[in-house]
Amino acid sequence: MSRRPVRRPGRSRARLCALLCSWLVVAGGCTLPYSLKSGDTLDDVRQRIGKPGSEHATPDGGHRLLYPMGKTTYLLTFDALGRLQTWENVLDEAHFARISPGMTREQVQAQLGAPARVWSVRYHDQTVWSYRFETPFCLLFHVGLTPHGVVEDTSYGPDPRCERDRRFFLGH
User: Fold this and answer.
1) What pLDDT band is residue 165 in, cutting at 50, 70 and 90?
2) Pairing of the two strands 63-69 and 54-57
3) Dist. CA 2–CA 29, nearest whole Å
4) In this structure, which topology does domain 93-172 adopt according to CATH?
5) What 3 state SS string does 76-98 have?
6) Cβ distance 19 to 63 under 8 Å?
7) How far, in Å, CA of 135 to CA of 23, rounded?
8) Is 141 strand, coil or helix?
9) Residue 131, SS3 per DSSP
10) Reported pTM
11) What is the DSSP letter of 13?
């Protein structure tokens, strides 16, 4: 005897709303959910947004703060005087294309932030960092690292969460 999932009123509607909202984010682009403007100080931004997921110094004396927010990670760049210069989502195909073989683990983290998932490929002796991002194609971006922490390769692959979510949404 198979068990069917219990249907709860409103859950399908909530899933549909979440699906539509995520489609609108993909179709309309993403903006940081905080009011920022060029010239804001590092301390003001930290006070307004909170502690970043990671922080990196730049060669010119500036700072880069990375704020992970689900399938987006915002990179805020500050000059040597601690003034905000730019902010952008770095979990997209344009930024992924900048990750190349020979880069170090630290360089990848400084550009993309922490991965959503870390796993091993034993037969290839590789650690893989996987990044979730907004895409209508339900993909992950993978970075393959050698045991020495150097990028060996990159690729895209299906996100197993999407299939699970799709089955739940369709009631299977």
Assistant:
1) low
2) antiparallel
3) 42
4) Beta-lactamase Inhibitory Protein; Chain:B, domain 1 (3.30.1450)
5) EEECCCCEEEEEEECCCHHHHCC
6) no
7) 9
8) strand
9) strand
10) 0.74
11) H
Domain locations along the chain: 28-89, 93-172
Q: Rounded to whole angstroms, how far apart are CA atoms 35 and 98?
A: 28
In this structure, of 2-11, 13-22, 30-39, 99-108, the range with the lowest mean pLDDT score is 13-22
Specify the length of the chain in residues. 172
Closest CA to 19 of 157, 139, 134: 134
The count of other CB atoms within 10 Å of the CB of residue 112 is: 24
Q: Which of 106, 105, 119, 89 is nearest to 28 (CA)?
A: 89
pLDDT at 111 over 50: yes
Q: Counting beta carbons within 10 angstroms of the beta carbon of residue 47, is it exposed (0 to 12), middle (13 to 18) or buried (19 or more)?
A: exposed
CB 139 within 8 A of CB 159: yes
Domain 28-89: assigned CATH number: 3.30.1450.10
CB 130 within 8 A of CB 107: no
Asked whether the domain spanning 93-172 has the same topology as the one spanning 28-89, the reply is yes
d(CA 112, CA 5): 38
